[in-house]
Amino acid sequence: MMYREIPDEFWNAVEPLLAPFRRTKSGGSPPLDFRLIVNGIFYVLKTGCQWSMLPRCYGSKSTVHEHFQRWVHAGVWAELFRRYAQAYQDLKGVQWDWQAMDGTLVQAPVRGQTRCLAAEGLGPNPTDRGRSGSKLHLHVDQHGIPLGIALVGANVHDSRLVSPTLVLDILPRPTPNAAHPQHLCLDKGFDYARVDAEVVGHGYLPHIRRIGEEKTMRGGTTQPARRWVVERTIAWLKGFRAIRTRYCCRATNYLAMIHLACALILSRKLAAA
Q1: Counting Cβ atoms within 10 Å, is residue 242 exposed (0-12), middle (13-18) or buried (19+)?
Q2: Which of 76, 127, 147, 159 measures 20 to 30 Å from 20, CA to CA?
Q3: Claim: this prediction has a pTM higher than 0.70
Q4: Which domain holds residue 60?
C-alpha cells in the first residue's frame, strides 16, 4: 500500500524536467512509470527509511535509487527548487526587506566513513562527543521562504557561513537602496566584529543579538524579533525524516533531498495562496 502520492500540481511541475530521461529505444522490460518513481523518492524523503526498505508497490528499490541518482547528477531537484522559488516570487513576491539566517546540526551516522570528510559536508559534532555530523545553514526571507542552503561539517562555526550561504541563493537578490533597505537578522552565534563588517559589505543592515544583551531594554524601543522565521523553516525541513538524520554518504544526494523538500514546502505555500 502506498504511503502517499505527490499532488497533481507538484507532478505537473516535475514531469517536464524528467522528459529527457524517458526511454526512446524499445525492448527489455517495461519501464517504471516516472510518477511512481517520484512517489517512491518522496516516501524515502518523508519516512527516512533505507532504500532497501522501500515498499514493493513503488517498484524495484534499485531502479528507484538509480533514477534518483541520475536525476541528482543532472540537477533536476535543484532546478525544481529554483522553479518553485521563481513561481513564488512571481505570484506572491519574496519579501526581501527583513531576512534571517541560521544553522542547525544533524546527526550523520553514515557508513563506510573512517574519518570525517569536509568535502562531503561531514565533520566532528562538538555537541555530540565528536561524532560524525553535518550542519545545514539557511537563508530565508521575511516569511521564512528558503532562499539559500549551505551544507558543511558540524564543526564549522555559523559565523563563517554568511557569505558561503548568500552565494548559494536560488534567486537573484534585488539591490538594496535608501528607499528599500534590506535587514539581516542573526543570533548570538554571529556576534563578531568581522561578521558585522561582512554583513555590511553585502549591503545589509545587521541586526545581531549581542552576547549578554538583555531581552528587553527598559524604557527603550526595539525591533520585533524576526529570527524565528528561520527556526520555523528549519522545523519544516526536519519534518522530513531523511533530512532530520542524514544517512546519505554523498553530500550531493543529501542536498538533493533538501532541495526536493524545499520545493514541496514552496508548493504547499503556493497551494494555500
Answers
A1: buried
A2: 147
A3: yes
A4: 8-19+30-74
